[in-house]
Amino acid sequence: MHYKRILLKLSGEALMGEKQYGIDSNRLNEYAGEIKQVVDKGIEVAIVIGGGNIFRGLTGAATGMDRVQGDHMGMLATVINGLALQSALEMCGVQTRLQSAIKINEVAEPFIRRRAMRHLEKGRVVIFGGGTGNPYFTTDSAAVLRAIEIEADVILKGTRVDGIYTADPEKDKNATKFDSISFQDVLTKGLKVMDTTAFTLSQENELPIVVFDMNKKGNLLKIVDGQTIGTTVNI
User: Fold this and answer.
1) Hey, CA dihedral for 221, 223, 224, 226, is it positive or negative?
2) Where are the domains of the chain?
3) Sign of CA dihedral 86, 91, 94, 97
4) Phi, psi of 45 (to 5 degrees)
């Protein structure tokens, strides 16, 4: 396999599937099956999920809610999504651990770096919930931070688009896709991969990012097998 330890970043919206909000059980089970294929190959997998399908702090702030309060609600939403994915994975026979940056001892372990790495070494999928535990930080930032802490080889950002384009491919039919691109070129061209904080942290730590279509069956396995899928951002 091309990678030994990966961090998979999923958006909360991805779990909605065909629904307008909440969690689509069919989509959840599809993702669990894709992740199981990778785990069965001996790859160590950590996951960070957003909470936008349930609540987004920025949206709450836009309607007059206190931003800190809204962000804490968003963090709790990521734990809900983590619990849902944990259940789906365990129904597939995959051992998991859910760790939260916010202490919720009844449903999740607290995030402890050494414990997380030990779980990964034992073949368990570790799901990180609660973001970074701090307001004003996105789950993109949480994903990069956790990836660096657990010494992941790469961040795999699963989206509904099959890579990074010169423009939004859903709006511009003439947009062309990059197979690979440097961190500097992403910044120079003003392309949107992650929020600035997360992207800069990844660049400074020379942590590659692969943006790919998570909804296309088999893509995740092809990436860890070394095939050119999506767009790779590297130094």
Assistant:
1) positive
2) 5-234
3) positive
4) -120, 125
- pLDDT over threshold 80, residue 73: yes
Q: What are the helix (H) ranges across 45-66? A: 57-62
Sign of the alpha-carbon dihedral angle for 209, 48, 128, 116: negative
Confirm whether pTM is higher than 0.90. yes
| % of the chain residues with pLDDT over 70 | 100
CATH topology of domain 5-234: Carbamate kinase (3.40.1160)
The answer to whether 131 and 75 have CB atoms below 8 angstroms apart is yes
User: What tokens were used for 110?
Assistant: 């607290």
C-alpha 206, offset from chain centre:
18
Residue given tokens 């010169």 in the structure block: 166
C-alpha 153/C-alpha 136 separation (Å) is 26
Cα 45 to Cα 8, 37, 56, 58, 197: the distances in Å are 7, 11, 26, 29, 23
Q: Round the average pLDDT of the chain to a whole number and report it.
A: 94
What is the C-alpha separation between 190 and 61, in angstroms, rounded?
A: 26
Average pLDDT of span 89-96: 97
Residue 36: HSE in the Cβ half-sphere, 13 Å Cα cutoff? 17
Q: Tell me, what's the pLDDT at 70?
A: 92
**Coil vs helix vs strand at 155:** strand
* pLDDT the model gives residue 161: 87
